Amino acid sequence: MADTDRRGSAETDTDWRGSAETDTDWRGVANEEAAEVSAQASSFLKARSRALLWDLLRPYRRLLWVLVAVVVVENITRLLPPWLVRRGIDLGIRSLLDTGSGRVLAEIVVAMLAALVTQVITRVLFLRLSGRIGQNVLLELRRRVFVHFQRLDVAFHDRYTSGRVISRMTNDTDAISELMEQGFDGLVSAVLTLVGTGVMLLVMDWRLGLICLASLIFVSALITWFSHESSRTFREVRNASAAVIMHFTETMAGIRAVQAYRREPRNQEIFTELSDRYRAINVRSFRIFAIFMPGIRLIGNVTIALMLLIGGWFVIKGWSTVGVLTAFLLYLRQFFEPLTDIGEFYNTFQSASAALEKLSGVLDEKPGVPEPEDPVRIEHAEGRIDLDGVTFEYAPGRPVLPDLDLHIPAGQNLALVGTTGAGKTTIAKLIARFYDPTAGQVTLDGIGLDRIGDEDLRQAVVMVTQENFIFNGTIADNIAFGRPGAGRQEIEEAARTVGAHEFITAMPEGYQTDVSQRGGRLSAGQRQLVAFARAFLADPAVLILDEATSSLDIPSERLVQRALRTILADRTAVIIAHRLSTVENADRVLVLGEGRILEDGAPEELRRRGGRYADLHKAWEESLL
Ligand SMILES: Nc1ncnc2c1ncn2[C@@H]1O[C@H](COP(=O)(O)OP(=O)(O)OP(=O)(O)O)[C@@H](O)[C@H]1O
User: Fold this and answer.
1) Residue 596 lies inside a defined structural domain of this protein
2) Whole-angstrom distance between the N-terminal and C-terminal Cα of the chain?
3) Which of 164, 190, 230, 481 has its CA 20 to 30 A from that of 468?
C-alpha cells in the first residue's frame, strides 16, 4: 500500500515538474493517473507509445503501404466527379449544343462511372485490409498485455488493483481498436480531401479558390478553441469512465463481503456518484460538440452562399464558366464534410494515445522478482531452506522483518505461530519468492532463490494459500494444475492419498464435474482437499501452507488433518498454523512477534519451557473444552 503512496505522490506532486526529474520518475505505470505532466515527461511518454505502436505495426509494413496506396486511389476517385461535372457542363453539353455530337459527354459519363466503381472497390479493399491489420494488432496487444500482467510480481498486483487491470484490458484496448477502425481512415481521408480539394479549387480558378480558402481562417480559429476545450474534457471523460469500471469490478469481485456487511447501499451511492460524474462530463463534451459541429457547418454554408454570389458575378462578367462554378460548389461540400468529423477523430486520437500511454506503461513495468539470466539448475531439490540476515520492507523505511536468520533442514516440518501481523505470511512469501528480500538472502539447498530458474523453483517450492483457489473447469483439471500433463491415474491417486476420492466420485460427473456448474460447487473443506491433492501431485521438496482459518466440522477436520499428515511427510514444510493439532504434529515451532523469532523449538520442549507458546497452547486447549 505504502508503495502505492510513494508512486502516488510522484503522480501528483511537483516531482513531476521539478528539476530533479529523472527517467525513473515516470517509468512503467508510475505516472498513470497524473493530472498534468511536464513537457519532458510528455515527450518521453509519447515516444514510448509510438515505439509500442510501431512495434505492433512492424510486421504489417508492406500491407500498410498497400493500404496507403488504396486510400490515395480512393481519394483521387473522390476528387474526380466534380471536375468531371465541370467538363461535362463546359465541354460535353457545349459540344452537344454546338455540333449535336454527344461523344464528349458520353466519354465523361463513362469516366464518372469508372471513378465511382473504383471508389467502391477501393473502399471494400480498404475496409477488409484495415480490418485485418487492426484486428491482428489488437490480438498481439492483448496477448502481450495479458502475458505481461501474468509475469508481473505479486508486489505489483498488490498495488495495481484488479479494476485497473480490467480497465486496461477493456477501455484501453477498445480505444485503440477505435483508432484502428476509424481514426486512420478518418485522418488520412480528411487530410487528402482537404489538400486535394484545396489544390483543385486553386487550379480551376485561383481567385475563387483563394476566397474559399479564406474561410479556413475561421475554421482554424474554431478548431483551436475546440481542441483546447476538449483535450481537458476528454481526459476527464476517460478517467471518469475508468473509475466507473473500477468501482464496478471491485464491487463484483468482493460481492460476498459486500453482501455480508450490507455494504450495498453505500456502494450504490458511490456508483451513482461516479456514474453521475461520468454523465456530467459527457454532457459537457456534448456541449462542446454542439458548438463545434454546427459552427463548421455554418462556416461551410456561408462560404457556399458567398461562392454562389461571387461566382455568379464572375460568370456574368465572363471571368469564369458555369461548369467551374458548379464544380466549386460540389467541391466545397466535400471540403467541409471531413472538418465536421475532426472533433470525432480528435476524441479518438486522444483516447487512443492515452490508452497507448497506459498500456506501454504496463508493458514497461519490470517484474520485481526477475528470472535469472543464467539460472542454476536444480532438478531434485533436497529442500533445505536458509534465511540469512533477511530484512524485508513492503514500504521503504518500515521493515516488517528486521534481521531474520532461519535455517530449516531438509524434511523438517516447521509451524509458524504468532500474533496477527507478526510476519508469518511474509516469511512464507519470501520462501516462495513472491518477493525478494530487501537485504540478506533466501537459499534453497544453499543456492540463492534469485539464481534458480522459475520452472525449477516452482517445481521445488509450492505454496498453498488460504483461499484454496479453484479455477473454472473440471475437478480433474483443478488437481492437474499441480503438475500439468499428469495422467488421469496420477490425478486419482493424488486425490485418494489426501482422502478426496470419495467425495469426488460422489459428485454428479465424478472427476469430470465442472466446478463452475450447479452441483459442482465445493465446500470449504472440499476445496482444501482439492488444493492438497494439487500440492501432492506437484510433489515439491518444500511445501508452504497457509492453513485455512475457517474451522470445519469434526469429520471434515479429521479428514483434512489426515490429508495434511500425508502430504507433509518426507518433505520440508513451512506451515502458518491456525490449529493446535497442526502445530503439535510439527517437528518445530517458531513463535514470531514483530518480525522477530521469540521462541524456537520442538512443541513439547516449548510447552515445558513455559513461555508464549505454553500460554498459547493452554489457551488453545481451553478453547477446545
Ligand atoms: N502487501 C503489503 N504491503 C504492505 N504491507 C504489508 C503487505 N502485506 C503485509 N504487510 C504488513 O506486513 C506486516 C506482516 O504481515 P504478514 O501478513 O506477514 O503477517 P502475518 O503474521 O501473516 O499475519 P496474519 O496472521 O494476520 O496473517 C503487517 O504489519 C502488514 O501490515
Assistant:
1) yes
2) 40
3) 164
Mutate to test the pocket of ligand 1, among 1, 6, 426 (most ligand atoms within 8 A of CB): 426
Which CATH number characterizes residue 190's domain? 1.20.1560.10
User: Domain holding 425: CATH number?
Assistant: 3.40.50.300
Count how many domains the chain has: 2
- What are 389-419's pLDDT values in tens digits? 999 998 888 899 998 999 999 999 999 998 8
d(CA 212, CA 218): 11
Cell, residue 343? 472533433
Cell numbers that stand for 411 in this block? 524434511
Residues 347 and 403 in one domain: no
33 in a structural domain: no
Render pLDDT for 115-128 as a digit per residue (tens, 0 to 9): 999 999 999 999 99
Domain residues for 58? 42-363
pLDDT at residue 21, as a whole number: 40
Residues 290 and 234 in one domain: yes
Q: Is the CB of 370 under 6 A from ligand 1?
A: no
Are 112 and 325 a contacting pair, CB within 8 Å? no
Nearest CA to ligand 1 atom 28: 421
Q: What's the complex ipTM?
A: 0.94
Within a domain: 553: yes
Which of 289-303, 304-318, 341-355 has the lowest average pLDDT? 341-355
Q: Taking residues 468-484, report their average pLDDT.
A: 85
Q: Cα–Cα distance between 588 and 606 in angstroms, integer? A: 9
